[in-house]
Amino acid sequence: MEHTPSIPSPSLFDLSGRNVLITGASRGIGAACAIALAQAGAALCLVLREPQGDAPPNLATVDSIRQLGATAQVVHCDLNNLDSVRGVFQKALDAMGGRIDVLVNCAGIQRRSPSLDFLETDWDDVLDVNLKSVWLLSQAAGRHMVPRRQGKIINFCSLLTFQGGITVPAYAAAKGALGQLTKALSNEWSQHNVQVNGICPGYIATDMNEKLLADPARLRQITERIPAARWGDPIDFAGPIIFLASRASQYVCGELLVVDGGWMGR
Q1: What is the pTM assigned to this prediction?
Q2: What count of other Cβ atoms lies within 10 Å of the Cβ of residue 175?
Q3: Alpha-carbon distance values, 188 to 29, 92, 94, 231, 234 (Å)
Q4: Which of 89, 156, 171, 263 is flagged as catalytic?
Q5: How does pLDDT run across 167-179, given as a tens digit for each residue?
Q6: 251 included as an active-site residue
Q7: What are the φ/ψ torsions at residue 229 (nearest 5 degrees)?
Q8: CATH code of the region 9-259
């Protein structure tokens, strides 16, 4: 593995000249991360779903990045369609001139139901998007990065990487496995100068948690347990994503960085 360069510390976080492929960047945490990476100098390729029916494409993040003067390419893929996932990394390589330096797996879906009633189709959907698509993209990225001896992969895990949750058995299973996958890939690829790490969000005010946010009793219970006394915002991930994507984290390998306002510490 390369050593952390002896350069002024602010320069360690500079992502100029780096190409980043990111999923889940149309909204929420992913959008905030994509914009932060662009602000740090990176060129972005966003994986977006094809517009459904007559709905216009959601290009708000793309527009925000381009307004910064940064590159924002788009490749289309439904992460629930594994055949589509298998081809998307090559599409991104083509769009980015044949090089991807950083892969950010941020996309995820949620299904809530008591375990006794949990549908097999919901289980399959959650595991395919939250785990198998990440594996397929990470494997493709590794095949590109390991021979080049350079690269970073950042997986978005969860508090449920460590805890079981309630009425979310598929999500807990996927995120628990994703934490172990992150460590397994790090164990193999760190020696090839490819750092694989995870970010574990706590309770964040995004669309995925809209049911919790709309439940006054549950909202109060959760907020009272967070030492920071507030839910997180997507912008809280700007610093962590830049750190793990940059040379500042050169010797950080197989880490699951919890960003939760102190929940796990309590």
Answers
A1: 0.96
A2: 26
A3: 28, 24, 27, 35, 31
A4: 171
A5: 999 999 999 999 9
A6: no
A7: 65, 25
A8: 3.40.50.720
